[in-house]
Structures are given as C-alpha cells and as structure tokens.
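Lecture 7, part B: from sequences to assemblies.

Below are the input chains for today's worked example.
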Amino acid sequence: MTKPKLRIGLIGTGFMGKTHVFGFASAPRVFELPYEIELHSVADITPEAAARAARTLGFAHSTTDWREIVHHPEIDMVDITAPNALHKEMALAAIAAGKHVYCEKPLAPLAADAREMADAAEARGVKTQVGFNYLCNPMLGLAREMIEAGELGEIRGYRGLHAEDYMADADGVHTFRHDPAGGGALADIGSHALATAEYLCGPISRVMGDCVTMIADRPDGRGGRKAVTVDDIGRAFLRFENGATGSIEGNWIATGRKMQHDFEIYGTKGSLAFSQEHFNVLHYFNGADARGRQGFRRIEAGPDHAPYGLFCVAAGHQLGFNDLKAIEVAGYLNAIAGIAPEPFNFRKGLRIQTLVETIHRSSQEERWLDVPA
Amino acid sequence: MTKPKLRIGLIGTGFMGKTHVFGFASAPRVFELPYEIELHSVADITPEAAARAARTLGFAHSTTDWREIVHHPEIDMVDITAPNALHKEMALAAIAAGKHVYCEKPLAPLAADAREMADAAEARGVKTQVGFNYLCNPMLGLAREMIEAGELGEIRGYRGLHAEDYMADADGVHTFRHDPAGGGALADIGSHALATAEYLCGPISRVMGDCVTMIADRPDGRGGRKAVTVDDIGRAFLRFENGATGSIEGNWIATGRKMQHDFEIYGTKGSLAFSQEHFNVLHYFNGADARGRQGFRRIEAGPDHAPYGLFCVAAGHQLGFNDLKAIEVAGYLNAIAGIAPEPFNFRKGLRIQTLVETIHRSSQEERWLDVPA
Amino acid sequence: MTKPKLRIGLIGTGFMGKTHVFGFASAPRVFELPYEIELHSVADITPEAAARAARTLGFAHSTTDWREIVHHPEIDMVDITAPNALHKEMALAAIAAGKHVYCEKPLAPLAADAREMADAAEARGVKTQVGFNYLCNPMLGLAREMIEAGELGEIRGYRGLHAEDYMADADGVHTFRHDPAGGGALADIGSHALATAEYLCGPISRVMGDCVTMIADRPDGRGGRKAVTVDDIGRAFLRFENGATGSIEGNWIATGRKMQHDFEIYGTKGSLAFSQEHFNVLHYFNGADARGRQGFRRIEAGPDHAPYGLFCVAAGHQLGFNDLKAIEVAGYLNAIAGIAPEPFNFRKGLRIQTLVETIHRSSQEERWLDVPA
Amino acid sequence: MTKPKLRIGLIGTGFMGKTHVFGFASAPRVFELPYEIELHSVADITPEAAARAARTLGFAHSTTDWREIVHHPEIDMVDITAPNALHKEMALAAIAAGKHVYCEKPLAPLAADAREMADAAEARGVKTQVGFNYLCNPMLGLAREMIEAGELGEIRGYRGLHAEDYMADADGVHTFRHDPAGGGALADIGSHALATAEYLCGPISRVMGDCVTMIADRPDGRGGRKAVTVDDIGRAFLRFENGATGSIEGNWIATGRKMQHDFEIYGTKGSLAFSQEHFNVLHYFNGADARGRQGFRRIEAGPDHAPYGLFCVAAGHQLGFNDLKAIEVAGYLNAIAGIAPEPFNFRKGLRIQTLVETIHRSSQEERWLDVPA
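Predicted structure of the full complex, as structure tokens:
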C-alpha cells in the first residue's frame, strides 16, 4: 500500500530553507508519516541560484518566480522561508490557491497582518504551521507533561529568557531586523521565550513591558550611521490565566551568550529548570524526595521521552537542532492528514505577535496591559 | 607593642549572633586587625540563656537587660542581632551612648526609621555597619574590580536574583516576616539582590516593581489562618545611573532553591555570571579571546583574589559562609580605626530600605518611580 | 554538470542501519559531496521486513540474501550493520567483488580477522570505513587541531573514559555481547575511549590492563543462568609514543551514566576537558591567560569549528548524534572519490582491535605489554 | 559546671599551623566540646617569629625550642605542623612525654617510621590524629552513610582522583617534596584519594601502581638543575575487600586544576559523584526513581547533613575549607575525652603510607601486590 504524496514548494533558500529541507529529508526516516514527501520546486532570485538550490537540496524543479510555486497545481504545501516582510503576501496567495502553508517565524511583523493570514487560512480550510522549533524538543514535551499531570503541583513562579549576542557589536550594520515594524530583540528572540512560557504555563493574561534600546545607532552601510528604534533588550512581567506570575527577557546584546533560551518554573510540589544551551537535559526538583536526599535531578533525554527514541537508540546520544526540525515537520504532516491538531498554526503565530505587540505598547505607555484574546 | 582593645557587647544570641561570633573569632587569626577583640558581654532573655551563651560563645559577662550593654562604659561596640523590630530602639540608644553599632540586616523595617538611625550615627560620629555579608565575597570584589577597570566595557544589561524556598510551604506558620511593616521576599532576600546590583553597577535611579503574594494566608498558630499581605515574589525592572538597565527578583517560594543569589552582567567587551550556590567561582567571558577559543571562563577563587589568600593557601580550597563574616568584621574594625571607609554603614543600609520601599510603592501604584536619593 | 552516482547496498536494518541512512539522507544536504547518493538495495531476514525497510528507509530494492547485494553489479558501496560475528564474511565477499565497504564497529571480534579484512581491502584497492562516529565531532576536531598546533604545549597526562549503564542490571539476559570472542565493556565501548585517545595523542605504545567481570552470570533466557566471561569494566594504563602517559576505562555497569565518553588532557601550556554528555562543548584552560582571570573556558561549538557551520547558522544550536553520522558519511565519500584520505579505515579498525586484545592479554598476564604495530 | 581545659602546644606556624588554629578557634563556638581549649604555647625558629605567632594566633607563650613544648607539664596535646621530615622525632618525643599528638599529614615519609609512631602512641595510651581533613566534609559523611545503609546496593566500581597543578611548572624549584623519601604526587595528594577510597569503600586489598616522572629535573636553586626521582603522576588499579574494583590517580601537574579531589562510585542500586571543587554538593543517582524521571540529583549540603547545621542555618550557605578543620578538631577532642573513637589516628595515617608505598613498589616491580595489613 503506497502512501499519498505531499508535494512541497519552497520559497527562500537561505539557512532556514536549508534547515527545513533537513527536516523533510530526515522526518520520513524517523517517523511513520502519512505522506510520501516529494520536493517539487524551489524558488530563488536568479536562475542559477535556484538551479543550484534545486540540485543541492534535492528539488526536482526551480524557478525565479515564487508565484509559480504558489499556483502550481501539483504542489500541495508551500514552505515560506523568505524575508519576514514578504511572508504575508506569499502566504495569502498560497492560501487563496488552496495550499497548505508552512511559514518561518515571525509569521508577520504586525499582529494585524498575522491575524489576516490566520483568518484566511481558517476560512479556506488549509493547514498551517509556524516554525517555533524549540517547542519540538522532547524535554519541553516532558516538562509540559509533568506540569499537566500535576507533578509540580500548582505553578507559582516562572522565569523565561532568550539571550544571545549576535547584535552585541555596536558596529554591526543596520538591517531589517532593526526596523521598527516588527524588529527588535523581543520580536526576534523574546518571541521564543513567550512561546515557551505559554506552551508550559498556558495563556498569559496581562503584561508589563520594559523594552530598551542600548545601541542608539548603527552603521547604515554607506558611511553614516542610522538610528535604531527597536529594542535591544525586551523584558516583561507576566500574569498567567492559571494564577502564576513570572517574567521573560529577550536580549540580543548579551555578550558571550549563544543560546540562553532558559526557563525555571516553580510549583508547590516541585520545580523545573532548563537551558537550551544543553537542551537534551531537564533539571527536576521533586519535593517528595526523602529528606537529605533532595536535589535537582539532571534528567537526560532518552527513549522514555518520545519521540527521542525514534532518533537515537539510547539516552545520552542527544538530539541536535536539525532533529527538532524533523519533529516539527512530522507534526505538521500529521496535521495536514487530519491525524492530529496543528502543533503551532497561524493562529498561534498570531498569538505570539499579539504578545510582542502588547509588551511593546505596555513599555511605551509604561503601564500594565491586558493581552487581547 | 600591644594593640588597643575593642570590647564588644552582643544583643541577641540566635543564629546570626553565633555567626557574628564566628567572625570575631576568626578575623584576628586571618587579618592583621587594628584592635584586639574582647568579647565583653552578651544579652539574652533569661539569666540561664544568657549565661549559657556567654560560656558557649566566649563572652566574659552576661545579662538579661540589653540596656546594660548599651550603657556599659567598658563596651566600645554594640552588636545587634535581635529581631528586626527592635533594631531601631537598640541602635539609637547605643549611638546616644557613643557606641559603634553593628546591626544585622535589615537595618529597620521602614526606611524612615533607617534614616533616623543613619542620621543619628553620623551626628554622633560613631561607626556603623549593616551585615550584607554576600558583598564580602572576594569573587564579588573581583567582579567589581573588573567592572571598574573597564574589563567588561560599558555595562548594558544586568540580571539579579535571590531565590530560596524557605517559605514555599503554604502551611508554614505566619511570622513577623509576613508582617507588612517591612517583611516579604523583596525586603528579606531581594534586598541582597539589590545590594549586589548597586555594589557592581552603581546607583539605581528608577524602578518598576512587581510584588505578588502567592500564598494568600498561613496558619496563625492558633488553629486558624491569617492573611499574608507581604510579597512572596518581588520583581523589579531597573535603570542605573550609568545607563545600564536590568532586573532583579527576590523569591522565597522557589521550591528547591537554597541560595540562588545569582547575577549576570553584560558589557560591551565582556560579561560575568555568578551564582552564590557556588560562590568561590566567577564566570567571565572575554570578547577579546581568539575566535574559536571563546567561552565563559570558570575562575576559581584563589590567592590572586584578596583576601582569599589569608584564609587558604591555594586556589580550590574555598571559603565558606562564615569566612565571609570574618571579612565583614575585619572591614568594620578597620573603619572604626579610621584606616578605611565603612564598607556598608547605616547610610547604605538605609539605601537598601529606600530601594525596597520604592519598588513596593511602584508595584502598588503600577508605575515607574524615581528612587529618592 | 551532474555528479556521478554512488549506489549503496545496506545489510542490516537495525538501529545502526537506520542511523547510517540518516547520514546518507542528510550528508548531501549539508556537504558538497563528490557523488550523488543512491539508496539501491537493502537486505533483511524476511521478504516483509526487507520490503518494509526499503520503503521506510528509501531504498529502491530489497532482498533477503545479503550476497545479492555484495554481487550486484550496480552497487558501489556495501554498508554492513549486521551483527558483529558476520562482519568478516560479508566484508571479505564485498571486497572480493570490488565494492567499497563501510562497516559498523567493531570491525571484527578478533584482531586476526580484522587484519585479514584490512589486508584484503588494501590488496583489492577498495576504500573502507569503520563507524567511529564520536571522532566526527567538530569539538574533537578542535581539540586535535589545538594539540597539533601546540596550544597545549607538550602533552603529559591523559584520562579517557567511556561509561554507560546498559549492562548494569544483573538480570539482563546473556547475549552475544557477553561472548568471550570479542565482547565485553572494553571491546564494546572502551574501544571508543581508545579511539579518542589515539585520535588526540597519537599512537599508544604500551599498556597495562585491568579487565574485571563484576556480574558473574546472567539469565540464559531458558530459565537458567550462564557464566559471563567478558569484562564489565576494562581499565588500562597507557604510554603514548609522544611521551605522554594516561589511562582509560570502559565500563558498561556504571549505574546512571548514559554517555560518559569523557577525556581530560593536560599539557605544559594548557588543558582540555570534554564530556560526550554535552558534546557541543569543549573546556579549555589556557595557562597564558592573565593572573586572577584564569579558568577553564566553556567553548560552545559554532561556525568557527568546521563543519558545524554547514549544519547550523550560529553557535549554540548544537549538533546531534545523527549529525555526526552525516559528517562520517561525507568523509567516507570524499575518500572514495580520492579527494581525502580515509578518515577511519579498516586498518584503523584493526588498530583498535589490536589495542583491545593487547589490554585483555595484559590483564590476563598481569603485566605491561607493548602494543604490536 | 566548668569544663576541663585542654592545653595545646603548637610546633610550626606555617599555613597549616594557622589552619589548625582556625579550627581551635571556631570548634568551641560550633560544637559542644568536652574541653575548654587553651592555646598554651607555640614554637617557631626565632624568638621574634615565635612571639609574633603567639600574638597573632592567640597563644599565651612562645619558644624557639620545640622540646620545651613537648616536655611542658601543663601542655596536654602537641600539635605538629612542622616539615614532614621532623614529624617522627617530634611525635615520638611527645608520646614519650605522655602527650596526645595531632600531626599534619603525611604522618611520616616512610611507612616504617609511621608504624613506629603508631605503635608508640598505642603503647603509651595517648590519643592521636592525622589531618586528613577532606574526610570531615559532611557530604563525604553522607556518602558513607548512604553506602553503609545499602542505598547504593553492592558497590562495583570506584574512580578516585586528586589532581592539582602546583608542580606543573617545570621551572619550579626542587624542594623536599621532590625527595624520593616520601615525596611525589602520589604521597602528597594521591594519599587523599586513597584515604577517601578507603573511607567510602573499606579496605583496599590489592594494588597495581603506575607512577611516572614527567618533569625529569628542576632548578636546584643554585643555577643548575637537579634530577627529580619522585612521581608527578601516580595511578593505581584497586581491589577492595568488599569485592569492588577501582582506580585512583594523584597528579600534581594537571594544568588548570586546583582541587580535583573527585570520586565516582557505582553500585547496583545507585551511584554517587563528587568533586572537591564544589564540596558542598553530592550527586546521587537513585535507580529506583520513576522511569523518565531519573537523573543524578544535585544534593546541596544542609542541616540534614550533620554537622553542617551547627555552622550554617540553612542549606546553600556552604562550608569552607577551614570549617572542615573545625570538624576535625572537634572529632579529635571527643576522642581524647573518650566519647568517640579516634577519627583518623596514627594507625590510619600508617595505613595510608602503607598504601602509598605498596603502590610505589608495585609500579617499580610492574606487578600487582597485596597490601600488607
């Protein structure tokens, strides 16, 4: 019995495009997928670049016109890894053409745009996905499972973080990421901290933001300097619907930090601590352990933490970043097949943008704000 | 040539009193002090308790009346480790009697009281000290030295923390620490995070507080429950005078945490990370290290980090909590002798109370507040 | 310009077979390979299993007869992941048929057999590879590069380890791994510690072994128990040709350990420490760092550590176990194309078996032995 | 009711002498001791040095003749921290005079001398102590308690280590520590690894040594170089009477290491891992923890781990190196009073020397040796 094919058209061949292809390549070898993946077409700026991408990445066809992909009758799913500013136009066109749409984060620089995209997808009945891959980590799944099962008791305190240093150099050139329409540390990586916070603790109901620009201007690439109007550090106090309180920080000038996507979560019965710097490990404190024998346990990812066992035969081998992408792909294909709900669809992508915008606005207005539904 | 004597009268013989005596006992064996310390008198509630304390701790005399100590003509320095609510009366009496006064933290539950104490001490010309012992750690000294020398460049971001779990049990009895007049996690341990932040980065100019009560009531010890009106978690966004921004959290319901007095500080050239859970270590990222060889260094306390070398012959041996108290005592004695400035006098104790109160008020009013001078 | 094809026949579809296929799938998307990989045929025990493996893993054909693969004229490379005892017969047949041969470790249970295989491959002029994938870690490459460049100075001391707990349960059934002809902790995982030791420090010239059986017998699967005659812990003192001295331990009953493949290497100028439990990190002590600022640096894998940058866009993202396999595959294909030397050919596989056997014999004879060339 | 006095005479005022005095000063404030300690006399080379030591350290009298101390009728216990080569003569004289004797490690460079000292002490009926202070760590006490209670099950594997870098510089001057009569890394610090091994796992019955000199000669202090005949690294395989097997290493040229006194101990039910680099922590793996929730626990020293609670009010505060000395002093005083057995008497000091010598001999003869009783 052969599986139906799912034909993919990829727009954008930069690093994230390549990472998606890693996911398409390994997912079928790891998971029992509902479809046979076919890498149909890829679009890039020039014919040469597109042809090379097709050859390297394994697509059958190439084009310089992303609209060809969107409208190609054989293509089932459009995968968008083009610059953020183009996400909306491409996605809406693909949705209109009845394609399933997989879009890198952020879904769109503005929540209003993201909402339009989510509405369109739901109206048209296509399945969507935004690439919040850190959430695909089995250890985050374990954390959520433990929280939902009550192993930590009632959650009281949360601390989330996503800090890197890729913008720490004040002489780094001004780019689209420094653009006020959607850029900044909070939007770019603080969004991951927010996604993880809601993934673990449920909806955030209220925020108080503190977004600061520490590097006032950057080289404009033409010998001058251009003012930076986005945040280099975005902090927020949080209220969760479940009664917990917490904070997050997104920081792209944290000199020396490469992947400090961390969280600590404190409950009445136990606690968890995690760092993406070592993402195959979850630290767990169990308040029920015997006196004098208590301490944070260093749980290493293993076959007990699905779907780790599909990748590696035993604990300690460790998943890598690209493996998380394979898990993301598998989840999306199951959703397309109707086997499982969409893991992180455009509606959820919109949610993150809404949180980011509310925190920005709270920071500007210097007051607590309710997060719109 | 014999040294002059410094005769000490101790009020309060609980754990902190004992810890102070550890400091008095070891400081002269570690440091070349300007005085010979004499443990003159100790006060406790009953004659038996006072006599036992005198014997165990090594004081020559005992009394049940703290005023005897304050007024005893032979006593040079009064050391107050009695309950917080009594600090003010005792300290003012001692100052009026011309004694130097060493007082455990917090100096007083209310900043107004702390100000009265600081003013009185300065007017009378006595030397004072508040017990912020974490600041006596040679690795914090190293951190400050590196910052002042510009080794981190310009400071941009600060994250401070003091989390423990000693109040995590909702069935723990209501105590004076749950009293609105000065109690709560922010005042009790968040104050340490604030002291460290200013020690390293200089004055905090503006704050936005978020103080929350997670355990609504606690057993009153008589079969009922009593409402808790203090914060279990106190958070704040910070602005420093030097332009840096940051945050701190004080949390006494962080299940599993025993001493998470941590900070991370990010500059343009380098960064530091520290945890009191392993306080003989400072992590240092130097942006000038060669490419491909960069990473946070785990610096272990050693003789290069004064005054470590007076305690241990080589790196790796490690100081303990009580050693920090000996350093604190030595610093105070040098100040009394006029050799060095007061390391952490009543004026600085007042400063911490002012920060705590401003954060509390900011949280209640839900707006940013300038920190009064 | 199209690339020549390299057609692969896989024998064995267990976990390691699957892992190899992960490598074949991702290598072309990561590296600019000299060949286009074609998954030609796969062999398994039953027609159903073989057909399912072909479908899941992406092979065009399937068979129940491994000899068909070995003799198929279209197949260029035979990949052997069948049980250890079959490696020799399969490899010799494939070599005789002029195929390149990729064989999982251990190459053969006995060094004499491994030697026959290595000799045959060299005589026939085919390219071979044994799967010592830990060596493909960019951080091990970095370590070797630093050592070769003299960054550590002269090497004096080495400590290697590979400890896990998969045989810690005394009620685990007796298997082929408990067979005296090649089994045991030293052969199974101590071999990794030996491979890493020689990879970093060069040839081991002399050994003193200490191989012990701690679990005397195991269930025979038929209600009785069967004596275990292999080592549960295999230790050795080492002399290296370069003058360094050291030790290794292989241990499969180290309760709680999942992947303690660690090493520490001490030179006159600096040192390295590594644990496979966190294999994207290398700890480096540089004796030339300024006084009071020295400490082991936690170097995180990043684009400065080739070929990491081909997998992930920035430091901190982390490679996984299966990525190491892609690196291994790429190295082998380059060797087949004559672009680079064989990274770890049968001759090197033999070398490891020789070391294992010499340590076994040394342990039995309770004396130091020279390692045969 | 006043306590009897115990009058102490100290010979040697170097760092270890000072450390002992720290212990004498703090022990009575921490523990309920059977004696009141009186610092009676101290001996040093010159009258000035002796007088200064008396003043700084708090002794009533000083002398330049250690024999005065040994024979002084008022002195009850003689504390020897003079150079190793003098231990024997001083101790035998003190024993002959009926004094209790406290001696820094090593008890004597040669086991034969140590035996004479132990025999003499027992014959004369005085109480003795050798300063193996790492064993006084509450976390080592916890480890032993867990092992004795069977919490780890049957012990199978042990790995011990004591590595530092204080002799890593080949241009460090030749000293008495490089003298063949008792010097070398194994004797100097490997002895600590041996003491810990027997403290935790019981008697070692058989050893195979590997002692190597990596720095052939050192400056003689007069412009030339002098051959080094002691080991820079001393390794040993171990057999324990209880059936466990293991290894230790003593290494004083481990560049970058300051206090790598580590052990790992693997049992059938659980495991422990420890590093003196962070000696207030013990890592514990409990095989009975639920599946998917297992991992090494980071147990922080606290009041549950006696006598920690006498020093610090709560977990996380941490003991320092000098606190271990206070514990050592308290244990010895209880032994003198007949309340408890001698924690580490001359007989045990002899035992360590016997182990060291047997390992040295084993290394020279290149064969396994039984450890004499």
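Note for the exam: Chain B touches chain C at residues 142, 281, 283-284, 286, 289, 291-300, 302, 304-305 (CB under 8 Å). Keep this in mind when comparing with the next example.
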